[in-house]
Design brief:
Length: about 525
């Protein structure tokens, strides 16, 4: 069923391409109702406008807080055009049908991004707009609602044909309108929760800002990525080269970015400021800090050369041409960095499928909600932005102070390994590096054994100067027995087990040094 547009109400904050639509309406003899800044904009274009107060019978009031809210406007949108009782009542009340609403809401999201004060935020909460949008969308059988300038071309195409809109267009625009207002209200709720220091967490997921991915974890699964436009991060980053990112690429890239960001925060006052992390299946298989980017890259790659094949790499600084040449004969899926030298782009340009993503490290100032789905719902937690900087000595053999920096580096690496996680780290003349890791196992003994074997694969033969990092406490002394067998002398763990005393005594028995962080960084 097509609907002829005779009367339209235009009230927008974003006036992008509004001139094109308004001129089409004007050319077709459509009466245009408007108010405030939109009315002035249209009048400046030479388009005749019916003031909103002529429809409502009331002036604009309270500094513009009251304009479109009225019985007359809402009735003109909501009465059913094929219901004789509605038609008769509309005639009795002097209600005239409004066939088209063009409305986008006060720019609350844009104002929020500017860290505006609370009063400014409140004044940018639209009231009349959502009422009109929802009323028009509810009555989409007879009324057309447009909430996005991107819709104008489709709308103009139908209007220029016969000044009518199709049922399909009205239906699709109505759905977009409800998505628009739903997201708008969620952003307001989330912002006010934060300003009012409430513990509630409103999460905004809307098809309005979703991108369809090629497929999910496997080819038979559908997948989407939703970008939170209020924060900076991977979902908002734009690749400058390479094929489309997949669901798995995004998960691995996020793991690379988060682990690298922690290393950057840790190394701010250190001489080794160039950081590189290499991720495979969401786990760091290489991580290093050095005085030069090229050396950090080489050290990170050698942490697990086999797993580094087909990996994702994240750099703390602009990627140099030298680093690009070093990677030229190696296969990686994605490279992330704040920027890329022109020479590096030239080298990488020869690999057309290689994705390059410019993205700065995460500052850690804002804790994002971390969302995972479960049957029937979601579990949400705040991001783990913790940095371990202090350690409690618990064994007789003192922890060498010269190793504190290495221990801090190791806890940041182990934090991003899937539990049960064990990381072996060491310092060389070139910097700090992950030399062996074990993760994602049902018990910590298997992870410890994996870490030791990986270090041996990487040509490590002296474990006495390494530090073993555990992401959670040791439940039994058997982990200490295995570590001692490998020749490990330094251990960092959170502590907190009912058998801490037994574990400490085992370390004392072998002359090992152990410290507690008091903080668990478990990662399921």
């Amino acid at each position: 069923m097509k609907v002829t547009i005779k009367k339209a109400l235009l009230s927008v904050s974003d006036k992008t391409n509004l001139d094109k639509l308004a001129k089409t309406l004007n050319k077709n003899g459509v009466e245009i109702i408007s108010s405030g800044g939109t009315a002035k904009y249209l009048q400046d274009l030479g388009i005749e406008v019916t003031p909103i107060q002529k429809v409502t019978g009331n002036p604009e009031a309270f500094g513009g807080r009251m304009k479109t809210l009225s019985f007359q406007v809402s009735s003109g949108l909501l009465f059913r055009r094929d219901n004789q009782d509605d038609i008769s009542q509309a005639n009795e009340l002097g209600i005239e049908a409004i066939d088209l609403v063009v409305c986008n809401l006060y720019p609350f999201e844009e104002v929020l991004k500017k860290n505006s004060d609370l009063d400014t935020l409140i004044e940018n909460i639209d009231i009349g707009g959502p009422t009109m949008v929802r009323a028009a969308a509810k009555n989409y059988k007879y009324v057309t609602i447009s909430t996005n300038p991107a819709q104008y071309d489709s709308l103009i195409e139908e209007l220029e044909r016969d000044n009518q809109t199709s049922f399909e267009l009205r239906r699709d625009f109505a759905l977009a309108a409800f998505q628009h207002t739903g997201r708008y209200d969620s952003i307001i709720a989330g912002a006010l929760e934060e300003r009012f220091e409430k513990e509630e967490a409103t999460i905004t997921l809307s098809p309005q800002n979703a991108k369809i991915l090629r497929y999910g974890e496997n080819p038979h699964q559908k997948a989407w990525v939703y970008a939170n436009t209020l924060t900076e991060g991977l979902a908002n980053a734009t690749p400058i080269q390479g094929k489309e990112l997949s669901y798995n690429n995004l998960l691995d890239a996020d793991a690379a970015w988060r682990s690298l960001s922690d290393l950057v925060r840790f190394s701010q006052d250190k001489k080794e400021k160039n950081g590189v992390t290499i991720i495979k299946h969401s786990n760091p298989c290489g991580a290093a800090l050095s005085t030069t980017q090229e050396k950090a890259l080489e050290m990170a790659w050698m942490g697990d050369p086999v797993s580094s094949f087909g990996s994702i790499i994240c750099f703390s600084h602009e990627v140099t041409e030298a680093s690009a040449h070093w990677l030229s004969d190696k296969f990686v899926e994605v490279i992330m960095a704040p920027s890329f030298e022109a020479g590096a782009l030239s080298v990488f340009g020869k690999k057309k499928n290689l994705r390059l993503i410019p993205i700065k490290p995460h500052s850690g100032d804002h804790k994002e909600p971390m969302i995972r789905s479960i049957s029937g719902g979601w579990v949400v937690q705040e991001e783990d932005n913790g940095l371990d900087i202090e350690f409690q000595q618990v064994t007789k053999n003192q922890f060498d102070q010269s190793k504190v920096e290495l221990a801090q580096f190791g806890t940041m690496v182990a934090k991003h390994l899937k539990s049960n996680a064990i990381a072996l780290v060491r310092r060389t003349s070139d910097g700090l590096e992950l030399i062996g890791a074990g993760m994602g196992n049902p018990n910590r003994l298997i992870s410890l054994d994996q870490a030791v074997n990986k270090a041996k694969e990487n040509k490590a033969d002296d474990f006495s100067d390494m530090i073993l990092i555990s992401d959670a406490f040791f439940p039994f002394r058997d982990n200490i027995d295995l570590a001692n067998k490998a020749g490990i002398k330094f251990i960092v763990q959170p502590g907190g087990s009912i058998r801490d005393k037994e574990v400490i005594e085992a370390c004392d028995e072998f002359g090992m040094s152990m410290v507690f962080t008091g903080t668990r960084h478990f990662r399921h």
